[in-house]
Structures are given as structure tokens and as C-alpha cells.
Amino acid sequence: MHNESTTARPRVLLTNAIHPDLMPELSASCEVILAPDARPDTLTQLITDIDGLIVRSQLPPDLFDHAPRLKAVVRHGVGLDMIPVPAATAHGIAVANLPGSNTTAVVEYCVAAMLHLRRRLARIDSQLRRDGWAVARPIADQGLELAGSRLGIVGVGAVGSRLAAVAAGLGMQVYGLTRRPETLPGGVTAADKKTLFAESDVVVLSCPLNDQTRGLVDAATLASMKPSAVLINAARGPVVDAQALVAALRAGTLAGAALDVHDKQPLTGEETVFDCPNLLLTPHVAAITATSMHAMSRGAVDTLLALLRGQRPSNVVNPEVFRS
What share of the chain is helix, strand, coil (3-state, %, to 5)? Predict the structure, then answer.
């Protein structure tokens, strides 16, 4: 890790704004620069004289080649796929994330999506407004309760474990697919991929994106699901073959889906998902609430300031930089 010291206040770059309550504290200790946008060329230009970086957008893979002063990078959240961690390590730059900072927000999003899809509330609302009581009321006859149904969770980490507990409280049976079945919490039954997708009424994806999960939910997997089942992706877009999902929803071989994450972000409005039935689309907001934003910004500021003071927080993901 770099050990240069300077009498000037450290310069900190934000790829995106943090919670306004935390800005005065960060600004009191650092010179803060908010990037006007998160385009690769913008970030590359700004990073040249920066000491600390708080990340809420995808970083270009070669960014750290242009950052001779950079000492610390903090992910304003949990997922590290936005940060080229090996490159940071090679440059002696500490990288930290904030485990647990948005768990509740993501879990609540998943529950909301389950209820949205299973009870058809949005459709009932729009039909009532457009066509009246008599037309809207029979839609409820098609609604399905969560109690007594089976939830399959792919990736039973912090989010998956908390979701499993909530689902059990709602009377659901829970299957879990994870690389380490021995770590599954009580009440969660280990299942292989084939069993989980074939037997679950609701499947929630809360796994990281890696070589094993990229394209995990393909056309064959979707075809194995119950026609009454629903799929919720709160992981990363490439975990699901979006075109195969659209085809399944259009064909009626899958009852519904919710996508909070997408292959390419932001969506432009031209993608086929916009012309697809029974599909809830959200713009990568599962982890975002006023509550979680404050918690993530609090954690990001605390961690970054600690790193810039030469401390070694326990949430650094590449602690080997301290031994260099």
C-alpha cells in the first residue's frame, strides 16, 4: 500500500453522490470532487491526483494505471464487480466494501416483488381504473398466496439467509442453492440447480456474478420451471439470459418475473423487456432506500477516512496490500 504523506488535505473522488448528511463530515477532512458523470474517460481524467475513491458506478479496468496517488477505494455497497480488485492490489491500493449495509433493503425488495407478482396488485389497480370494478375484481381469483409455496434462493449469503428467515415467517418452504451447503441456515433445504428450479414456486437470484453464475438461468432452466412460477433477479443482469426470459413470458410458460438488474445499464427503453407481459422492471434499486443510502454512506465515509489515516479496517477485501 502507498505510504506517501502530504500536508494538504487528501483529495477524494465520488463517482456518484453520497447521502447529503455525510457530505459535511467528508468535506471537513478531505477535498471532495463529485464526478459530473461516470464515463470511463471522465473518471480516468479525474483520478490522476486523487487519494481516495468512493464507488457507485462501474470503473474502467485500467483506471488504476492512471492513479499514482490513489491509496484507498471503498465500494458504496457490497458487490465488488464494479471494481477491478486484482488491478488495485497490483498497484498497492486497498479496496473495501460494506457487507450487510443494504441487506434489509434487498430483502424487502424481493418480498415486495413476490407479492407484486403473485397477487397481481398492479394489474388489478390499472384494470380497476380503466375498466371498472366488475372487470378488475375477478383478476384476484388468479392470485396465489406465499404461504404453503416453495421459495428457491440461489446464493444464500447475507441477503439469501435473511430472505429465508422472512419467507419461513410467511409460511414458505425454502430451498437453497449454494457452493457450501453446510453453511445453509436452519430451515433451508439444500437443493441442486435442477431440483430448485423445477420445484420452486418463486426463485430469487441473490448470487454474485462470476464464471459459475454467468448465464445460469438459460432457456433450458426456464423451461424446467413450473408455468405458475415467478423469477426475481436481484443479483446481476448476466445471471439471466434476458432474451430467453422474454420468450418464456411471451409464451406463457412462466407466470412472471422481476428484473432489477440488466445486461447493460442503464436501460434505454428500446430493449425487448419493455414489450413483455408480466415483467416488473426496476432500475437497479433493490438496495436503495433512504435508510440504506444513509447506512452505506456512513460506512463508506468511515472506512475511507480510516484508510486515509493509515488504519486497517476489517472490511478491506485485499488486506495483502498492507504487507507489501
Answer: 40, 15, 45
CA-CA distance, 151 to 234, in Å (whole number)? 14
**Band of the pLDDT at 8, cuts 50, 70, 90?**
confident
pTM of the model: 0.91
Cell of 68: 499514482
Give the other-Cβ count within 10 Å of 85's Cβ.
Answer: 17
Q: What would the pLDDT profile of 69-85 be if each residue is shown by its tens digit?
A: 999 999 999 999 999 99
The answer to the question of residue 3 being in a domain is no
One domain, residues 269 and 319? no
Run of H or E residues at 162: helix 158-169
> Which domain range does residue 167 map to?
103-281
- Looking at residue 210, its amino acid is N
Same domain for 41 and 113?
Answer: no
- What is the longest distance spanned by two Cα atoms in the chain? 73
**Helix, strand, or coil here: 27?**
helix
Strands (E), the chain: 11-14, 31-34, 52-55, 72-75, 94-96, 150-154, 173-177, 188-190, 202-205, 230-233, 256-259, 279-281
pLDDT, tens digit, 9 for 90 and up, residues 228-239? 999 999 999 999
Residue 2 CB-density burial (10 A; 0-12 exposed, 13-18 middle, 19+ buried): middle
The answer to whether residue 5 sits within a structural domain is: no
